[in-house]
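[#protein-structures] MJ: dropping DNA-3-methyladenine glycosylase 2 family protein here for a structure pass
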Amino acid sequence: MSSRFAPRPTRATVRGGETAVPEGVPRQSTAALTRTWQPPFPLDLGLTLGPLRRGPADPTFRTTPDGSVWRASRTPQGAGTLRVAARGGSVEAEAWGPGAAWLLDQLPALLGESDDPDLFTPHHRLVAATAHRRPGLRLTRTGLVLESLIPSILEQKITTEEAYRAWRLLIHKYGEPAPGPTPAQARMHVMPDPRTWSLIPSWEWHKAGVDNKRASTILRAVARASRMEEAASMDPLRAQARLELIPGIGPWTSAETVQRSNGAPDAVTVGDVHLPGIIGHALADNRTADDTEMLALLAPYQGQRHRAARLILLSGKTPPRRTPKMPKTNIAAW
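AK: finished. structure tokens for DNA-3-methyladenine glycosylase 2 family protein:
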């Protein structure tokens, strides 16, 4: 174990409330490892880690009033809980569980150390203004594929609200309590391991609102879990190609995954219902743009198209909604 990780007491207190140990977690598992890291760049924790949150009630991701971000992850070493807080120019981190040391080792990558915004050159006034206002935006790199791949599969062809509900229900029922303390009033869970995913009965997928196509895609992915996780160390294009070998995983899903697992700055999301219209409206006053026009508009940002798209989304210049939202399909009621 690295000497920079120091044990902490079994209880922790954060501004905003005392943390609580979930039921069923052995007390000895609550001892924390700690790390302090000083990023050599401006860092906004919310902007950087926000894409990892799957809805306001995501049981694997919480924030607390003191500005801390909590994550529960399944690492190559096992389950782990990570708390990250920015204090002045430093980042203070605590981690619990078998995966604690792995999470602290990965902390700089998670917070954008491998990202290089200096490679990005704005070509539109809107993009330049947003980049100037958001100097703390870094692209996260989790080094974990399945934790981003599975919720991305759940989000295929349905509303985000339905996908968030499915993720929440499945994690609560089949995940395990996050090790160590968690924020008061916020029970956290680590997502299931591949075998547990594979044993979820068909009727439980149905009750969570997940149709057979998406459930089958997840089952094919977890059956090749080690091959999927290898993609985290690949070049993003090769990583996407690896993921797309699984039937049911296309460019939309692979891009949404490697944006998070690999910190891919050019993995622009194609096949999205709303993104082309947002990009078209922001850069060409064309809210009816399709994927072809979106890619043409983003062409000057080749190599950094995902970063450009994120900045456009953060600019707030989105077209007024003139068409109905995607209809909800409650298959659990069938």
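MJ: nice. Confidence is low (pLDDT under 50) at residues 6-29.
AK: one more thing. DSSP finds 15 helices and ten strands in the chain.
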